[in-house]
Each structure stands twice: as C-alpha cells, then as structure tokens.
Automatic annotation (TrEMBL):
Official protein name in the record: GL23882
Organism, scientific name: Drosophila persimilis (Fruit fly)
Pfam family of the protein (one): zf-RING_5
Gene Ontology terms: biological process: homologous chromosome pairing at meiosis; protein sumoylation; reciprocal meiotic recombination
A GO cellular component entry from the record: synaptonemal complex
Key words of the record: Meiosis, Metal-binding, Zinc, Zinc-finger
Amino acid sequence: MFRVHCNKCSRRRDVEPTIPFQLTRCHHIICGPCLTVCAAEKKCPMCEHPLQTIAISRDMPIGVANYFQDPTKFLQLYRKISKFQSEQRSSDNLHFWRREQQHEELQLKLNGYTKMEAQLNQQTKVEKKRIAELREYIAFHERPAVDSLEASLSSSEYIAARGRSNSRHGLRPRTPSENPTTDNTLSDDLVESFCMHSEVDFGTKKSKHSISTSTHRSSVRNSGGQRQDFQI
C-alpha cells in the first residue's frame, strides 16, 4: 500500500489528516491548498487536463476506492475468476464436441434411411407392375366363356376357339413369371448400415421380398379321350 500524498507539494495525509485530498479524473492526488490555487484555471496542476475531482474518503464509489486497496487482493480474485472461466470454456468445448459427434451419427443414419427408401420405392414400383399383370392374367382366365370352352371342347377346338376369342377380346395377356424379374434383395452394405444405426432388430441382414404366384391349370380331353393338363 502506498502513502497518500499530494502530487504537487508532497503533503502527506497521515501527517496532516485535517487537510482534504482530492483524486482527479486523470489519476492525480491534489491537496486542498494546491487545488485552491489551480481552481481558477480549471486544469490539473500536474498534466493540465480538464480538472474534475472527487474527495478521497470512506464514502468514495467502489470503483474509485479500489485504487486504494491492496493489489494482492485483486490478484487472488483474478486467479479465481481466471480458473472459473477456464473451466467453463473447457465444459463448453466438450459439449460442442459431443454435439458434433451426435450430428455425424445422425447424418450417417439419415443417409442409410434415404438409400433404403429409394431402393424400397423402386421395388414397390416393380411389384405394382407385377401385381397389375397378375390381375390382368387372372381376369382373362376367369371369364365364363373360357371356362365353358374348357369343359366342352376338345383340345384342338379349344385352341381354335381361344384364338377366335383373342381376336374378339384382344390378345391373351403374357404369363407372369413366378419369380420377380429383378433382384429385390437389399444390398448387404445398406442393410448392415441400417441395422447398425437403428434400434430395430431385423434378425437377419437380408430381407427378401418375393411374390409367389399360384399356377393355373386347365384340363381338357384330347381327341383320343385322354385327360391332358395345361400349365399356364
């Protein structure tokens, strides 16, 4: 701690406690007599800046009173503040890193869902086309005229009649294949990536989607009277 004294005439406050001392805005200490001499000029006698002062007493504002405190007190406070802020910065950096990791995991999962959605949409489009073909095929062979022909005509007559029927009602629809024309199995990498980053347990890494079509059999008797099966 320093001794309070006038920067102009060196009077000490502890020696002459009855003399008032003032602290200027430019951080100079001036005693009452020196301040009276320079009051007319309204300039600091030390640096000639505009004169603005405050009385040095116990009633000084805390911001001014701190200039007269022991600096080691503020050094300890600085260390506590510095440690506290350093810990808070470390905590904030840790939470930011965790959020970045979570964002990367969610982005990877989203990419897996997006790829799976695209592949499933493609499979759905193919299956809808196959279902339409199956319905057309079933509707063609469930017509009453075809059933009556199968029961009454011989093989050669049935074929000729079916040809005439096709000319009237349109061509006979193509026989759908029993197996899908495309591989509807999800790729191993895609399903494995999806299972790794989802909470759903699929049991296996592959899920095959296939539609089994029932075989329509027609039986007619040939000219020799023998029963003959046709698989369509």
